[in-house]
Write a structure and sequence with these properties.
With 148 residues, the chain is mainly alpha-helical. The chain starts with 11 loop residues before the first helix and ends in a 10-residue tail after the last helix.
Length: 148
């Protein structure tokens, strides 16, 4: 039996691309599942507001977690911190609005539509791709050693 060719090991740039596209795939799957199986169902309209808030909160945490896991391996510390801060700020705003809606007074329909659109944009692959583009644009190429 001939020996198996195990192939060459992945180079760091290849690993980075692979991790990025795996995260993009996970982000696209999350968005599709939430949008198709939760937000566009007839049961969503009859669901209590607090239950809807919990589902939306969970999807935001999963979207943040996908980026956190991938960018922890790929990105410099400042970009990971920017990822965390941007999601924390958006999550804080949405939690404040959800608390107001749940405990104080129902938000007007036009404002709820804007908030839902903002939520969909956060769980979509858009923020992940934007941060990925920033990461790849600011990445320093490996230094080349002169040949002797």
């Amino acid at each position: 039996m001939p020996p198996r060719d195990k192939g060459r090991p992945l180079q760091p740039a290849d690993k980075a691309r692979l991790y990025f596209f795996l995260g993009l795939l996970a982000s696209a799957i999350l968005y599709s599942v939430v949008f198709l199986c939760l937000l566009n169902t007839s049961s969503y309209e009859t669901m209590p507001r607090t239950t809807r808030h919990f589902y939306k909160f969970g999807s935001l945490i999963l979207a943040w977690l996908i980026g956190f896991i991938i960018y922890r391996k790929l990105a410099p510390a400042w970009l990971l911190q920017l990822w965390n801060l941007s999601f924390a700020a958006c999550l804080g705003l949405l939690l404040a609005l959800a608390a107001y809606d749940a405990f104080i007074h129902i938000l007007p329909l036009p404002l709820r539509d804007i908030i839902s659109t903002f939520h969909e944009a956060l769980i979509s692959p858009i923020p992940y791709v934007v941060f990925g583009l920033i990461n790849f644009a600011t990445r320093t190429p490996p230094s080349k050693q002169p040949l002797n």
